[in-house]
Amino acid sequence: MDCHRRPFLPAAVLSALLAFAVGQECAAQVAPPLPAQPPVGPAATIEIEPALQPAPPAVAKVERPPISFNAVPSPRDGIVARLVASLMPRHHISSVELNDENAKRALDLFIDSLDPLKLYFYQSDVDEFQPFATRIDDMVRAGDLSLAYDIFRRFTFRVDERVAVAQQLLKSDFDFSRDETIIIDPDSASYAKTPAEARDRWRRQIKYALLDMKEQAESAKKKKAEGDDVAEITEVDPIERLQRRYDRYARRWKQTDSDDLLEMYLTAVTMSYDPHSTYMSPGTLDDFQIQMRLNLEGIGAALREKEGNTSVTSVIPGGAADKHGKLKPDDVIVSVGQGEDGEMVDIVEMPLQDVVDLIRGNKGTLVRLGVKPGGSGTLVVYKIIRARVELEESAARGEVLEHRLGNGPVKKIGFITLPSFYLDMEGARQQKANFRSSTRDVNRIIEEFKTKGVDGIVLDLSKNGGGSLTEAINLTGLFINRGPVVQVKDSNGQVQQYADDDVGTAWDGPLVVLCSKFSASASEIFAGAIQDYKRGIIVGDPASHGKGTVQTLMDIGQQLFQNNRNNYGALKVTLQQFYLPDGESTQRHGVAADLVLPSITQKMDVGEGDLKYALDHDRVSSTRHDVYSMVPADLLGELRKNSQQRVAADKEFVDLIRRVDLYVAQKEQSTVSLNEEKFMKRRAELDAQKEDEKEGEELQKTQDEIFRDTFYNREVINVAHEYINGLQKQNLARAN
């Protein structure tokens, strides 16, 4: 929960992490005032000349006392702001003009990007910003960025105040026997109204940090004595660690330049439309392009800022972390070390881009990550050998399982794991005979399955975050005769259908698609089409991820000068939305499972609907398409009933449900006790849950393993077996 951010990358892409807890009080100084509200006239269309022009003059500002802020607006910033304000309504899927509602959202997002836990600003500061809540749209259209600088100056002023007070409080004694709490839910927190209230809040923040460090040290010693790999126990005094951390934090904000601030501010404006529309500064665009051009080596994991922590959002199939097998989505990385004995660098106050630079490295080298699994509990160390993500290792793979349900006959079930919808675009462009694609690989596996006489197929998309739209369409075509697979609506409201035009199928027998809340984008298109055609059943979490939009990257220099020789950054804008054949959007709602199995992932806040200002779900007209007879209502009801009975009788599922309930209860807590005994008891419960989860992962798949023999996957195969039986009894075992 200890968190602060620094503006280097868009919040939805690579926002920065500055995590720590401090004590504070209001120093007897005058905060820098905001200027008077600027006069705003009627909105006008901004014509951008094909040459660099200075931004319109800003409204005169009131003189401020000196502050520690060295960022100076670049002459091009105003033009970039005006262009972004012009491009968003022209290209965004909503086609909505930048308006007062966007302005209100942008102000909230910008303030939240600076102070997500409401630890720095006073309520009076935020109240002073509010008159501008409906002015930001007009100001940005006019190229006026004065408000961003004024709010940021106020913020850095408060940071200096808080860090100074934190250093004072660290010299005092703390009573850990008091029965008091700290708010850990940002939505439940409020800005301090008085110096006394602020000081008390930050006294609690320091107590929380000290208790956290003490618990980590004690837990690490215990685990180390038991022979487990845990993060090295630091010999640095906790007070000294916090003193260094706070000083580094204050220094980092003073390194903010005009590009950093422009990125934060314009990203707040674009994210008022939806969470995937962002502005990339020139530096961020450079880094993005390097990553697109080069096959960079590292651990193969995507990171983001989540409530002030460096959190793992996904583990890339075929990458080093995937092979290692322990790093999971929702884990929090708090330290990074190089090699076997390099110093473990505390990254809690470090910009996320710097964290990425520390983790990235040459293949074959070792990096050590200090990780809190699930964001809490014992700090463990994962030793990962960096590697390059190889297509071969992230490609589709399959195996045939011989399965018996009760005393019935053995069924042969083909199990395919598909980590992504991949396509060798260069090979396809050159019409190479053997270019790689997910469709080609799955088709090859199916042909092998048919020679072995499989009765049905399970396609595992539970960790598939998407990929090529073309591949989603082509792969669907392996299981349907022909017809529309997805509909796409653009910012003009025009809807275009994309169909499988190849007659025939590779597999017309029983099909089970395994999905989770991590199944996104192209996975949802495939699963949704299979469901609309009633071609197979969807099993897993209640719904998939829910990302039903597509983004494009618009080079600002290209927009201004018809070339990209001048780097002005880029606008990533959401310009299309996906719809299934029956007209439903996958946006927010995802694809609902036909048969739900218990899991912790379904309770994680990792779906599209968990993001602020995510676009709404809607629908378009349905398209004409075939409807197969592969999902009889009576059979589906029987499958659900029988699966529920097996789950209720399975002790591992019963224990999973218990852990899910505990996870939800802990997640819903808005406060944590700062009484040492109660704090340690809660942590012990968290650690016990992690141990339970660790036991469930002892069968962690190896690099060569395709099907993991876990209680969850066994139930998936049970469902598939019963589904095959049911179709055969009704003479529906083929999709004719």
From TrEMBL:
<dbReference type="GO" id="GO:0006508">
    <property type="term" value="P:proteolysis"/>
</dbReference>
<dbReference type="InterPro" id="IPR040573">
    <property type="entry name" value="TSP_N"/>
</dbReference>
<dbReference type="InterPro" id="IPR001478">
    <property type="entry name" value="PDZ"/>
</dbReference>
<keyword id="KW-0720">Serine protease</keyword>
<protein>
    <submittedName>
        <fullName>Tail-specific protease</fullName>
        <ecNumber>3.4.21.102</ecNumber>
    </submittedName>
</protein>
<keyword id="KW-0732">Signal</keyword>
<feature type="domain" description="PDZ">
    <location>
        <begin position="289"/>
        <end position="360"/>
    </location>
</feature>
<keyword id="KW-0378">Hydrolase</keyword>
<dbReference type="InterPro" id="IPR004447">
    <property type="entry name" value="Peptidase_S41A"/>
</dbReference>
<dbReference type="Pfam" id="PF03572">
    <property type="entry name" value="Peptidase_S41"/>
</dbReference>
<dbReference type="InterPro" id="IPR005151">
    <property type="entry name" value="Tail-specific_protease"/>
</dbReference>
<dbReference type="GO" id="GO:0004252">
    <property type="term" value="F:serine-type endopeptidase activity"/>
</dbReference>
<dbReference type="Pfam" id="PF17804">
    <property type="entry name" value="TSP_NTD"/>
</dbReference>
<dbReference type="Pfam" id="PF00595">
    <property type="entry name" value="PDZ"/>
</dbReference>
<dbReference type="GO" id="GO:0007165">
    <property type="term" value="P:signal transduction"/>
</dbReference>
<dbReference type="GO" id="GO:0030288">
    <property type="term" value="C:outer membrane-bounded periplasmic space"/>
</dbReference>
<dbReference type="InterPro" id="IPR020992">
    <property type="entry name" value="Tail_Prtase_C"/>
</dbReference>
<dbReference type="Pfam" id="PF11818">
    <property type="entry name" value="DUF3340"/>
</dbReference>
<dbReference type="InterPro" id="IPR029045">
    <property type="entry name" value="ClpP/crotonase-like_dom_sf"/>
</dbReference>
<feature type="signal peptide">
    <location>
        <begin position="1"/>
        <end position="27"/>
    </location>
</feature>
<dbReference type="InterPro" id="IPR036034">
    <property type="entry name" value="PDZ_sf"/>
</dbReference>
<keyword id="KW-0645">Protease</keyword>
<comment type="similarity">
    <text>Belongs to the peptidase S41A family.</text>
</comment>
